[in-house]
């Protein structure tokens, strides 16, 4: 009878440890990021109130003064593409929005098209760059149930055309406090 009690106690302890281990598994919650190729009103306002405004002005000025334009009847036209992604954290308990801007232009990216993405966050009523990455776009934005005060952005592996750089597959960890 003693053996049966000990065996029962061991089984109860094993089951409780298994349940504790199962409940301790971390889960990723993928966040929706509104992505557009033409900035909406919120995104345009952020861009115009950040360092990107000066970058756009410098980019266009360079094209007008140093590129094809000064040579007359050029058919070349300068274009700046801004692929923007808004991450609204309000539905997840944080009173803020983040903006990712993929900046692409002939003058800025060069022949290889290796452009940069900027992560902008409002700090003290100013939109500031808190991260940037080059040559790859983001793959997913998520919160993790075990690290509740952090936001994660996983960058993609790239297109395998060029050599892998330091940003290929990188994980960005942003403190939300």
Verbal overview:
The chain has 177 residues and is of the alpha+beta class. It has one domain. The protein has helices spanning 2-23, 41-48, 51-66, 106-109; strands at residues 28-30, 33-36, 80-88, 97-105, 116-123, 126-134, 138-144, 147-155, 171-175. A hairpin with an 8-residue loop joins strand 3 (80-88) and strand 4 (97-105). The chain is elongated and about 100 Å long.
Main sheet attributes: strand count, strand direction, barrel closure? 5 strands, antiparallel
Count all strands and give the number: 9
Report the helical percentage. 25-40%
Average pLDDT, rounded to a whole number, is 80
Overall 3D shape: elongated
What number of domains? Answer: 1
Note the gap between the termini. 57 Å
The rounded Rg comes to 24 Å
Briefly note the structural class of the backbone. Answer: alpha+beta
What are the secondary-structure elements, in order, as H or E? HEEHHEEHEEEEE
Poorly predicted runs are: 19-23
Question: How much beta, percentage-wise?
Answer: 35-45%
Number of helices: 4
Can you list the strand order of the major beta sheet?
A: 2-3-4-5-6
Question: Which structural traits does this protein have?
Answer:
177 residues, alpha+beta, 4-stranded antiparallel sheet, 9 strands
Quickly describe the structure.
The chain is of the alpha+beta class and 177 residues long. The protein has helices spanning 2-23, 41-48, 51-66, 106-109; strands spanning 28-30, 33-36, 80-88, 97-105, 116-123, 126-134, 138-144, 147-155, 171-175. Residues 19-23 have low confidence and may be disordered.
